[in-house]
């Protein structure tokens, strides 16, 4: 446990928001829970979990149970020093005694959310509460409900052979570093930390 905290402090930069994107057909609750708890342990503030079939989101209580179990097993008595807020649709579900915020997302939180935001903006224009010139990046960010209160992901860890994020937050990952890993099944902490180390060493030019 001390190593995890030290690892987080040792990195030149630590992502604030990490997206964990599974493109494999058989998601593992235990392995995803390990990844979430490791994110908490190294000091990452926001975590998004996504699979393109929405399995984790439909079974979020099962995922939460596994996270609670591993939180106790991996962090032990230190668990009280961590916080995990389980949030979906902008509402708080269960709040654990910890300091990270988790959202479980599915494809409906991607393109469908952008369409809904556009419809809401058009309605505001029709009601003369807004004009078309009011639409900018910040306005659209505020209209998107699936990631309300979340910063854009700094890092996406994509698991599986598919060379695509398969609809994960297409608006929010314009400047996101994406690192591909072969699988989330039986992933080790060393694989996870190696990806964080790779991110910390990246020079982001912001399109320049």
Please provide a brief summary of the model.
This protein has helices at 2-10, 29-42, 55-58, 60-75, 111-126, 137-143, 189-201; strands spanning 17-22, 46-51, 83-88, 91-95, 99-105, 155-159, 177-181. The protein has 208 residues and is α/β, with parallel strands linked by helices. The protein has 2 domains: 2-107 and 149-201, 3-Layer(aba) Sandwich (Undecaprenyl pyrophosphate synthetase); 111-145, no CATH class.
Largest sheet: 7 strands, mixed
Identify the strand order in the major beta sheet: 4-3-5-2-1-6-7
CATH class of the largest domain: Alpha Beta
SSE series:
HEHEHHEEEHHEEH
- The percent of residues in helical segments reads 25-40%
Shape estimate: globular
Uncertain residue ranges: 87-98
Say which CATH homologous superfamily of the largest domain is assigned: Decaprenyl diphosphate synthase-like
Q: Supply the number of structural domains.
A: 2
Q: Supply the helix-strand structural class.
A: alpha/beta
For the CA atoms, what is the radius of gyration? 18 Å
Quaternary: single chain
**Average pLDDT, all residues:** 81
Determine the N-to-C terminus distance: 39 Å
CATH topology of the largest domain: Undecaprenyl pyrophosphate synthetase
- Portion in beta strands: 15-25%
Subunit structure: The active dehydrodolichyl diphosphate synthase complex is a heterotetramer composed of a dimer of heterodimer of DHDDS and NUS1. Interacts with NPC2.
Enzyme class: transferase
Organism: Bombycilla garrulus
Cofactor: Mg(2+)
């Amino acid at each position: 446990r001390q190593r995890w905290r030290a690892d987080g402090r040792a990195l030149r930069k630590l992502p604030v928001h990490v997206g964990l994107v599974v493109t494999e057909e058989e998601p593992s609750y235990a392995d995803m829970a390990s990844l979430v708890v490791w994110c908490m342990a190294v000091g990452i503030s926001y975590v998004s979990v996504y699979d393109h079939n929405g399995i984790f989101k439909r079974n979020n209580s099962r995922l939460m149970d596994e996270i609670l179990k591993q939180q106790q097993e991996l962090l032990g008595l230190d668990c009280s020093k961590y916080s995990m807020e389980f949030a979906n649709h902008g509402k708080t579900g269960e709040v654990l005694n910890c300091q990270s915020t988790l959202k479980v997302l599915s494809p409906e939180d991607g393109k469908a959310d952008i369409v809904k935001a556009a419809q809401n903006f058009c309605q505001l224009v029709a009601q003369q509460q807004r004009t078309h010139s009011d639409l900018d990046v910040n306005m659209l960010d505020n209209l998107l409900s699936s990631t309300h209160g979340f910063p854009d992901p700094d890092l996406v860890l994509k698991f599986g052979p598919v060379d695509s994020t398969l609809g994960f937050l297409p608006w929010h990952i314009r400047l996101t570093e994406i690192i591909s890993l072969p699988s989330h099944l039986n992933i080790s902490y060393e694989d996870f930390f190696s990806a964080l180390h790779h991110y910390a060493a990246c020079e982001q030019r912001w399109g320049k």
